[in-house]
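Standup notes
- DV: blocked on the single-chain target, sequence here:
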Amino acid sequence: MLSHHQLAAAARIGMLTRDHDTVSACAQALQELRHALPLDAVTLLSIDPLTGTHVEVAGIGYSTGTSESLAAEFVSTRWYGNVVGQPLPPSITEDAEDTGQCFRDGWFYAERIRPSGLRDGLTGALRHEGRLVGLINLATERPDSYDTEARHLLASLLPALGALADPTAHTADLHDLPAEASASLVTPEGVIALPGREPADVLNDGAFAPLVRAFAELGGDRLRLLWPVGRTWRQVVLRRCAVRSTPERRRVLVSTAVTELPYGLSPRELEVLTRAAMGQTNQAIARALSLSPRTVHSHVEHLLRKTGCASRAEATALAVRDGVLKPATGDIEFFVERMPLG
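- DV (later): unblocked, structure below
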């Protein structure tokens, strides 16, 4: 029967899933785990969504390098399949269901675990939103510490620990995205899908990818803009973002929402407004868009009337403030340097 301390620790671990400071929350969760289960060492590992490698996000008693090296070796053994395939976390003293052999009798225990003085261990597969996202491994110097009750207790904590270990779990929430917004995480290595979000469809447009790369290379913090997808438009927000497991890599959160062109602007008027916001003259805009200066002048008059702006400068401020822009890749530097943070 679970003790009061075990129940309290389990409840606190569940509450930590609401914390957006996941690095701190993961470390605190392992401290709470010490109140619920016997352990001398524990490591919480997430699976990097791009490389598939296990990366330690919190640990007690293991160095990060040791923990990650052990995980890399462990996933290549048949014991890993036993962990992933069982609803109840297996201990190292338990016979594997598929072979009837005990993990403690295998080479991995003999060569990697026993020399460190650890005599019992418990490993659970972490899942979130139906995806395998990591591992939790507990170990102790006391033999036969993890009985069936301990295994059931850890099993009850796996969903909360999975939410904490998932490196993409709070990526969208951190920026208070509307529930209906689509979002993806764009990295130099590829695009990462976000749990519970439709992918950002602007990324299917080959002309949009260079724009995102330019934003990342310039170290942009935030940029709002408009982009067409077929016959409809998207309000797009680019934000600098880091995946917890590999924060040193440059990542951009791309979120989109279906919209209409604001103020009744036409696509051409949006292009003219974007270039006007860059400080271009009517003559420069005419050359860039292959229009006559007279036509550009008419577009400027129309967009001023539609937006209710009294001057070109006022229209420029509105465009930058509200993201009424459709910049080309070469224009990004101008707006990244001038967009307000937040």
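- Follow-up: The chain has two domains: 4-165, 173-338.
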